[in-house]
Design brief:
It contains 14 helices and 2 strands, in the order ααααββαααααααααα. The protein is mainly alpha-helical and 290 residues long. A two-stranded antiparallel sheet has the order 1-2.
Length: 290
């Protein structure tokens, strides 16, 4: 199955399990709205690619792993867009959840997506308890304190957040969780896969910082200039435009070279190279158009 179709089908099954007749209709609608249509699905695609690079992946566990990663990412977007954080009016080219449904339902929607992520892992535990147990630790570390995306949001509440720690928690850790979850779902040692995900996340964050400065909101589907408005640390301010661009290129090269050994290493390197080229291409295109 095409990766995007498989990811969306797994997400749809997970959401349908929670959006039954007993669920308040507008909450169910908000949950669906927050997840579909999706963005590039980079994190679950990465999780799936790492799992497929091995020969012993369990399809049900892989589906649970990549769904949980994407649901947590979607939850973070819902909360990140709310007035208490970025106060962003759009996301993925449409009104943000709090704009479309109100702040109360947006808050509940984000909470529900977080719980749904762990419900997906709990269902996987029925068929593969050992792998699901490892996944639970990997995913929870990627979202919680002290190092996950919750900590990333927490750094935004500090007066002078350190750039490296902030961006690692805000972005890098969930990418690391995606690569480690893919390995764990395949039943192999996940430890060495975290560095790969962290570096991909770092590259993605630098590109996002460049797009926040130079991107077209109609193209990227969200407001730009948020770092300046909210006085947040970012790679462009810290390194300058040229420095951030050069660092992005170096990081991309390191990413492709850091894929651990696995049965389908060549195919995985090719896929990561293509994804990386897309990331850097979007960032440089935005800079060139500015």
């Amino acid at each position: 199955m095409d990766p995007d179709k498989r990811i969306n089908a797994a997400l749809r099954r997970t959401i349908q399990a929670a959006a039954g007749p007993a669920c308040p209709p507008r909450l169910a609608e908000a949950i669906d709205y927050a997840v579909f249509p999706g963005g590039h699905r980079i994190r679950p695609r990465l999780c799936l690619a790492v799992a497929n690079a091995h020969l012993k992946s369990d399809p049900l566990v892989v589906d649970a792993a990549m769904s949980s990663i994407e649901l947590l990412h979607c939850a973070s977007l819902v909360h990140d867009d709310m007035p208490c954080f970025d106060n962003a009016a759009t996301r993925r080219g449409k009104p943000a959840v709090h704009v479309a449904f109100g702040e109360s339902l947006a808050l509940l929607c984000g909470d529900a997506l977080i719980v749904l992520a762990f419900q997906a892992l709990a269902r996987a535990a029925v068929t593969a308890p050992q792998r699901a147990g490892i996944l639970l630790r990997i995913v929870s570390d990627g979202v919680g304190a002290p190092n996950g995306i919750v900590a990333g949001q927490g750094w935004e509440c500090e007066s002078e957040p350190p750039l490296k720690e902030y961006q690692r928690a805000k972005t890098g850790v969930l990418f690391a969780a995606a690569t480690m979850a893919g390995a764990a779902a395949a039943g192999v040692d996940h430890g060495e896969w975290g560095k790969l995900g962290q570096r991909i996340g770092e590259a993605y964050q630098i590109a996002d910082d460049l797009l926040d400065r130079f991107g077209d909101p109609d193209v990227i589907g969200k407001p730009v200039g948020q770092d300046a408005v909210n006085d947040r640390p970012n790679a462009v301010s810290a390194m300058g435009v040229g420095g951030a661009t050069d660092y992005l290129k170096r990081t991309i090269a390191e990413v492709v070279d850091s894929v651990p050994d696995c049965p389908r290493k060549a195919a995985l390197r090719g896929l990561i190279h293509d994804e990386a080229a897309s990331i850097i291409g979007a960032a440089l295109k935005g800079r060139a158009a500015a």
